[in-house]
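Practice problem: predict the structure.
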Amino acid sequence: MTEKQPERPDREQDARTGRSAARNRIQHQTKYVDLQIQQAMRRGDFDNLPGAGKPIRGLGKDYDPDWWIKQLIEREKITGVLPPALQLRKDDAELEARLDSLHSAADVREEVEEFNARVIKARYTPVDGPPLITQPRDVDAEVEAWRARRAAQQTRPKPQPTEPPTKKTRKRGWFRR
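Answer:
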């Protein structure tokens, strides 16, 4: 037999903590949120937000549960998270551009030797993903190809400079006033 406990009159009468106060807060919550939004609009907090007037990216596409990690990788330009075989394929495709940015044959030789060492190491480690199809590069052939590309780049005609600005458009420094 359970006895009905008497309600505490002081709890019911307290306007801040009683049940009626909680019920009123829930009922007026939507009004409060709408009021906050209207005040923010009047202050101009929603003016000139990034992406205003542009379509929402990915709207209408299939839902991808990993969308957030893909956006993080793209935004932060995170590299090195591919399986070794795929990373080596990517590095192989970008190797010539990386070699062209180097300034000496010794640096080119060192870069190709480092690439070859990574390929050979990947061949002797267990496969964690797709099969390794990347082949080591011939160091001497890559150095010669680098020299040929460099010589071809130097023999190209340089673009002609445009006319110097006229006296009227030239901006003067503060010390010539």
